[in-house]
Amino acid sequence: METKSLPRSTLGYIEAILSISINIILFAFKYWVGLQTASIAILADAWHTLSDSFTSIILLVGFKISKKPPDKKHPYGHGRAEIIASVIIGTILAIIGFNFLIESINRFRTHQAANYGLLAIIAISISVLLKELLAQYAFWASKKTNSMLLRADGWHHRSDALSSLVVLVGIFLGKYFWWVDSIVGMIISLMIFYLTFDILKNSISSLLGEEPNEKLKSEIDNLIRNNLKEEVNLHHMHFHSYGNHKELTFHIELPADLTLKDAHTISDNIENLIREKLKIEATIHVEPIEEN
């Protein structure tokens, strides 16, 4: 099946359902192993895995809301529900990271060690493989759909795979150093904090509104120069993202002697070009070129 034939929300639903199913199974397995080995690192890793299920439920809800059409109260649609869901995911990650950082520090202070074995190696190895596969699918789907929410969920899977990998290293070193389990728990917590910062920074920046990047500015400039005979000066550009729906506002300068009808026709042509080629809704303010 070709990817482009799948609706945007369908890829999100598939990723969420796979994530929820696999993560619940992995959580139960790793939690049991963590209890058997008295390992805070494995228990932390298990709860990190379960948190992926919670965030995938948020992902499902976010996609369901974001695909609702515009209405009277929300004329730009509901696409920012995805971004809000990303903020929720980041917040959950921050809480998880903080809790396990405190627990790891306490275990280090009381000299508590873990009793690793073959079962722990098997459980963590399986977790690394499955979580990285989920991350790869989420990243692939996020590129196909340009979804910040899927990207955030992909990084959540990746962080879980990396934390499990750190635990695996700790398992092999644990028999030589009593403090390895606590240190690994701290490392996982710091990894989660870094991931949280990245997700929240990008999500909040998008919610606040951003200036168009240089690539978009260049694409718009080329569209106008290649399709319109008039010389048009652009400035004061603002970009607003509502999930899959994009809005762009900017000013253009035109000769002062143009009729209102001609100026309106030019701005209409530019808006239609941007809508057709870039899939962005543009609103243009026309200004006369100031004479020196």
Description of the molecule:
Helices cover about 70% and strands about 10% of the residues. It is mainly α and about 290 residues long. The protein has two domains: about 5-210, Up-down Bundle (Alpha-lytic protease prodomain-like); about 215-290, 2-Layer Sandwich (Alpha-Beta Plaits). A three-stranded mixed sheet has the order 1-2-3. Helix 2 (about 40-65) runs parallel beside helix 6, helix 4 runs antiparallel to helix 5 (about 150-175) and helix 5 (about 150-175) runs antiparallel to helix 6. The termini are far apart. The relative contact order is 0.12. Mean pLDDT is about 80; it is low at about 1-5.
> What structural class do helix, strand and pairing data support?
mainly alpha
Task: Indicate the low-confidence ranges by residue numbers.
Answer: 1-5
**How many strands, which pairing sense, and closed or not: the largest β-sheet?**
3 strands, mixed
Query: What gyration radius follows from the Cα positions, in whole Å?
Result: 25 Å
> What is the fold-level CATH name, i.e. the topology of the largest domain?
Alpha-lytic protease prodomain-like
CATH class of the largest domain: Mainly Alpha
Query: In percent, how helical is the residue content?
Result: 55-70%
CATH architecture of the largest domain: Up-down Bundle
Beta-strand percentage range: 5-15%
| Domains, number | 2
Order of helices and strands: HHHHHHHEEHE
Question: How many strands appear in the DSSP assignment?
Answer: 3
Output mean pLDDT. 78
Strand line-up of the largest beta sheet: 1-2-3
CATH homologous superfamily heading of the largest domain: Cation efflux protein transmembrane domain
Distance between the termini: 60 Å
Shape: elongated
DSSP helical segment count: 8
